[in-house]
Automatic annotation (TrEMBL):
<dbReference type="InterPro" id="IPR036271">
    <property type="entry name" value="Tet_transcr_reg_TetR-rel_C_sf"/>
</dbReference>
<feature type="domain" description="HTH tetR-type">
    <location>
        <begin position="15"/>
        <end position="75"/>
    </location>
</feature>
<dbReference type="InterPro" id="IPR001647">
    <property type="entry name" value="HTH_TetR"/>
</dbReference>
<dbReference type="Pfam" id="PF16859">
    <property type="entry name" value="TetR_C_11"/>
</dbReference>
<keyword id="KW-0238">DNA-binding</keyword>
<protein>
    <submittedName>
        <fullName>TetR-like C-terminal domain-containing protein</fullName>
    </submittedName>
</protein>
<dbReference type="Pfam" id="PF00440">
    <property type="entry name" value="TetR_N"/>
</dbReference>
<keyword id="KW-0804">Transcription</keyword>
<feature type="DNA-binding region" description="H-T-H motif">
    <location>
        <begin position="38"/>
        <end position="57"/>
    </location>
</feature>
<dbReference type="InterPro" id="IPR050109">
    <property type="entry name" value="HTH-type_TetR-like_transc_reg"/>
</dbReference>
<dbReference type="InterPro" id="IPR011075">
    <property type="entry name" value="TetR_C"/>
</dbReference>
<keyword id="KW-0805">Transcription regulation</keyword>
<dbReference type="InterPro" id="IPR009057">
    <property type="entry name" value="Homeodomain-like_sf"/>
</dbReference>
């Protein structure tokens, strides 16, 4: 069975083309939004042949899916501070810095908006967050092992609880969160987890 367009990880010149195209696609998303994303325009910006872009990705949604996969792979690894509170504050800080960044913040806003009306983009966005949550979930499991959180705490749910208020504020107010918002979100998630809110009933 052949792979979906844009999902094969190439090397050499092909890798350089992919990097240039994904960078150009991200620029268009950040500057103009999903509805203005056009493969021919992306090819022009990336200085590659239009035929190459159409052959490799085939559609705007395939290109966005590959962009999100690349972003998930390139995101910073989780931080180990020795405490679940410290780890989750680091996670919240990473989310806050991403949303505050002019390019990244605009890019995420565009992709999230597109995901609301395009199922393939929604699937790609879910995969992106699955990768990121899986990267950070071990810090919660380690907190349980150290006795900082109750046994049975759902690690993935706790990680999502950290970033949820940051994204909600970002999308509903149009204002990026600040470091105090990030710290408060992490502390609230830790407090709820310690109270057993995220413990899975057995």
């Amino acid at each position: 069975m052949s792979a979906e367009p844009g999902t094969v990880r190439p090397g050499g010149r092909t890798a350089r083309v992919r990097t240039a195209v994904l960078r150009a696609a991200g620029d268009v998303l950040a500057e103009q939004g999903f509805d203005r994303l056009d493969l021919a325009d992306v090819a022009r910006r990336a200085e590659v042949g239009k035929t190459t872009v159409y052959r490799r990705w085939g559609s705007v949604t395939a290109l966005v899916a590959d962009l999100l996969a690349e972003m998930a792979e390139q995101s910073l690894p989780r931080t180990r501070t020795g405490s679940v509170r410290g780890d989750l504050r680091a996670n919240a800080s990473l989310v806050q810095r991403t949303l505050t960044d002019p390019r990244q913040g605009a890019l995420f806003r565009a992709v999230i908006a597109a995901a609301a009306c395009d199922e393939r983009t929604a699937q790609a966005l879910r995969r992106f967050y699955e990768v990121r949550v899986a990267e950070w979930a071990p810090c919660v499991a380690e907190g349980v092992a150290r006795g900082e959180l109750p046994a049975g705490t759902d690690a993935a749910t706790v990680v999502r609880a950290v970033s949820a208020p940051l994204y909600y504020g970002f999308l509903t107010t149009g204002t990026a969160p600040d470091p105090a918002d990030a710290e408060r979100a992490a502390d609230a998630a830790v407090a709820a987890a310690q109270a057993g809110v995220y413990a899975i009933a057995t």
